[in-house]
User: Which sequence fits this backbone?
């Protein structure tokens, strides 16, 4: 990229969006803790002054990144909020890789964040926990739509399967690894709903 283009971009609007996009790319590629604020500024591209005007600290940037993920379609949980998909299929789509063409395969960004911020009292860890609890609540809601007699317990089992499959898909770099957990989820659903009309 030429310096003229970079200077033009630095003066342009949309700095916050460019910062968040650059942070997302860097956090995914190399991890949150391995990414410095200077790298984010350079990748955005924005001046450090602009970066710190939008995000006073790296923790502020991390939280904005995680909140952006929660409202995107790039997480396991996102399929659970779709009303255009029947509830059983919503639950089973948990086992599909959210970004199938991603290479290398990445697991759940909230689990990744919790691993990078192991202190349960840290803001990033607490937010990751909140999203994982929300995921179980959304699964429970789908199971209630299906008439499941014990939706909360089954939701925890399915959430554990989904998170485990996402983690193994990342470790093995195998985008369709979720097929194994999906097969187990189908058995659990069939068993739980066998007496439901």
Assistant:
């Amino acid at each position: 990229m030429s310096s003229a283009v970079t200077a033009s971009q630095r003066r342009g609007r949309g700095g916050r969006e460019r910062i968040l996009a650059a942070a997302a790319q860097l956090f995914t590629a190399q991890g949150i803790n391995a990414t410095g604020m200077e790298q984010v500024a350079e990748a955005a591209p924005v001046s450090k002054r602009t970066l710190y005007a939008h995000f006073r600290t790296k923790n502020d940037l991390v939280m904005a990144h995680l909140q952006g993920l929660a409202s995107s379609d790039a997480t396991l949980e996102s399929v659970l909020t779709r009303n255009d998909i029947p509830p059983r299929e919503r639950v089973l789509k948990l086992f599909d890789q959210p970004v199938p063409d991603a290479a290398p395969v990445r697991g759940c960004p909230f689990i990744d964040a919790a691993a990078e911020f192991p202190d349960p009292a840290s803001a990033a860890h607490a937010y990751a926990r909140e999203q994982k609890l929300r995921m179980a609540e959304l699964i429970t809601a789908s199971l209630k739509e299906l008439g499941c007699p014990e939706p909360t317990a089954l939701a925890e089992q399915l959430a554990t399967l989904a998170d485990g499959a996402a983690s193994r898909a990342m470790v093995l770099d195998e985008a369709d690894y979720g097929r194994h957990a999906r097969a187990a989820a189908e058995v659990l659903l069939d068993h739980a709903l066998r007496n439901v009309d």
Summary: The chain has ten helices and no strands. The CA atoms of residues 75 and 109 lie 7 Å apart.
